[in-house]
Amino acid sequence: MKEVKITDIKGIKVGHAQNPEGGSGTTVILCEDGMLASCEVRGGGPASVETELLDPVKGNQGIHAVMLSGGSAFGLAARGGIMRYLEERGKGKNMRKGVVPIVPGACIFDLPIGDWNFRPGEEMGYQACLNATDGPVAEGNVGAGTGAVLGKMQGFENAMKGGLGHYALQVGDVIVGAIVAVNAVGDVWDPETGKIVAGSLTEDKKGFRGLESLLEKFLIPAGGEGENTTIGCIVTNAKLTKAQCKKVAEVAHNGFARAIRPVHTFRDGDCIFAVTANEVEVTDVDAVAALAAKVMERAVISAAKHADAAYGLPCYKDFDWID
User: Fold this and answer.
1) Which single residue of 49, 88, 119, 193 could bond 74 by disulfide (Cβ 3.0 to 4.6 Å)?
2) Dihedral sign, CA of 115, 196, 47, 225?
């Protein structure tokens, strides 16, 4: 088993575009020639598009990109630029007079971070596509992670900067990778150490509050309804059916649950897409799903560790007492 990147999968490109002053951005995972995909939404407040189309009982048998964006429901407009980029290149579902690109997507709520009046739109989605490469995947305050914040259950004044993370592993010829924007109401934990990596800080900023212990004391959380969300995408080259992609997306949420506490709340819109290039035969889909959970867990932690301080929010790198 070795660490790789999702862009090592043939046909996959990742691109980011962001406006740091506006406090938001867009990430695109391009699979221009079409790949099978499904998704699983488990948060109580999603801002998403075309997720119903990815249900295994629906007829769609291919997508051409996945959009992860900031801007809450406004940010869904960035999808128009991704569709324009693909249509200009003749990529999409062939219809009688042209093509229709299939682009599912989801957004995080980052409107209060920078300029409330800025939100990703068509031009940002288009620019993310222009920036897409099959090289290293940038992490931290980029793309959909630009305005991400985590540990918000006790309010923004005690929260930390979130971001975008990536992690991928190869076993034999099979690659399974994850990309994720972490904008969670909960803390980020590392299961390998059993310690908090980033989350709600104490008032003196010398420790973590430990939100699970606060819940046990029946404190009323301050995190606003729908103002959070962790969104991500699993990408693999394992040969899967659409139903198996759905199962991989479901199990990948275990990665969220291991690394984010609490998660899947009414205040989150947590969503994971699963995309396959369908290149490598596998005998055990459960092994692919288990690996998906592992890489998603590590991608969440990577997002927290790569975030930079911004918008008055501290980051993981600011605290030498965090192991």
Assistant:
1) 119
2) negative
How far is Cα 170 from Cα 177, in angstroms, rounded to an integer?
8
Integer Cα distance of 178 and 232 in angstroms: 7
Per-residue pLDDT, 148? 97
Name, in order, each residue with C-beta under 8 angstroms of 216's C-beta and a sequence gap of 6 or more: none
Q: Residue 132 phi/psi, 5° resolution?
A: -70, 135
3-state percent helix, strand, coil for the chain, nearest multiple of 5: 25, 30, 40
pLDDT band for 321, please (50, 70, 90 cuts): confident
Taking the C-alpha atoms of residue 107 and residue 119, their distance in angstroms, rounded to an integer, is 11
pLDDT in tens, 252-264: 999 999 999 988 8
Taking a C-beta distance cutoff of 8 angstroms, is the pair 144, 70 a contact? Answer: yes
CA distance 40 to 264: 12
Could you give the CA distance from residue 26 to residue 157 in angstroms, rounded to a whole number? 25
* DSSP code, position 310: B
Question: Checking phi first, is residue 171 left (phi over 0); if not, alpha (psi -120 to 50) or beta?
Answer: beta
Q: Give dist(CA 110, CA 107) in Å, integer.
A: 9
The reported pTM is 0.95
